[in-house]
Amino acid sequence: MTDNQNPAPFTELVNLAARSLGAGVVAANDELFAERENLIVAKPAEFRPHTFGHKGQIMDGWETRRRRGASVDETHPTDEDHDWAIVRLGAAGVIRGVIVDTAHFTGNYPESASIEAVSVPGSPSPEELAAAEWTEIVPRTALKGDTAHEFEVSAPQRFTHVRLNIFPDGGVARLRVHGEVVVDPRALAGLTFDLAAQEFGGVATGASDRYFSSPHNLNSLGRAAVMGEGWETRRRRNKDNDWVELDLVDEGEVLGVEIDTTHFVGNCPGWASVSGKDAATGEWVELLPRTRLQPDTRHQVRVEPRTAVTAARLDVFPDGGVARLRLTGRLTEAGRAAHALRWFNLVPAAEAEQALAHAGLTTGEAQALTAARPLTTTEAVRAAESALQPADTPDGAENSRRRAAIWRLLGV
């Protein structure tokens, strides 16, 4: 836990619980004083003193009623009594850190909190989530009032939902869940899409300047509603230029570039170029040459896929702001396989077995291949596949069936 003066490195990762990514608070056992949906509001919590409603001071957060004991002889709640709220992550992924922010809750913050996570595919109901097997990712820890508590998480698994438990009751202003997006490969197979998009796993890894706003806004979902939802640098006073680098979802071919300067009028860059990191050599290659930009405009350009790339770099000349960068393209076969194997290694065993069976393996084959995880290379998958029983038929039909099923899911 920190006092938030020096944010932990995980705060540079995507907030998987952002409503802009599609997150939602799907259930809570109580929200009498303040609504559960406030937990994932994007802006920092506010406090307006002496603003009372029918249930008391209006708080910008999630706040439950005061718990009581079971009887006149037991007036206090037990040590295990607690309230909870379940958040559906906007993008499933590996959680690297969590922030539990009790901003403005002073005499009404919880004594302690814990966080659990689970992976349930599809759109499960609150009842289905309650019945699932949850994993504790942050053990029960004491909280302070009016504090952003940062918790690093070490749980090498892909999760779809988190559950915040507060003991015994009280209020939490905001919940942030930072991590790495890991998309189900079946959702992207055969499609062209934005290879840099946050919702699919693209992430800004570096920037020359972030004085006015974050480079993480560049690949956010949707269009920027105001200038502050883009990336903007300070005014440059030397002859250099500003830049942002982003890791793509995985190795892919870029077919189109969009540089959106919406809302940037007097502070639009004069020119911009886009480069990609060659998947084979690691060298930067030109995708879009230096191009004139216009204020408040979506610039859309088709480009020839010269090479497979794993990262991108936007250079703006000399400085200014860009609302969004989109890199439309498709994963290469190697990129699809790498992405699918990462997903396969991170989902729970039951989920991996179900996906393999749906692709065409028998139950026994699916269980055996899942038990062989982690499988990080094509060669490892082939070795595990060749060990599956029963032995192949004389015409090779069993091998063909198994390999077709594995290809459908993992692309190897």
UniProtKB/TrEMBL annotation:
One of its GO terms (biological process) is allantoin catabolic process. It catalyses: allantoate + H2O = (S)-ureidoglycolate + urea. One of its GO terms (molecular function) is allantoicase activity. It holds the Pfam family Allantoicase. Keywords: Hydrolase, Purine metabolism. Its EC number is 3.5.3.4. InterPro entries: Allantoicase, Allantoicase_dom, Galactose-bd-like_sf. Pathway: Nitrogen metabolism; (S)-allantoin degradation; (S)-ureidoglycolate from allantoate (aminidohydrolase route): step 1/1. Residues 22-181, 201-330 form the Allantoicase domain. It is an enzyme of class 3 (hydrolase). Belongs to the allantoicase family. This is Probable allantoicase. It comes from Streptacidiphilus fuscans. The lineage of its organism: Bacteria, Bacillati, Actinomycetota, Actinomycetes, Kitasatosporales.
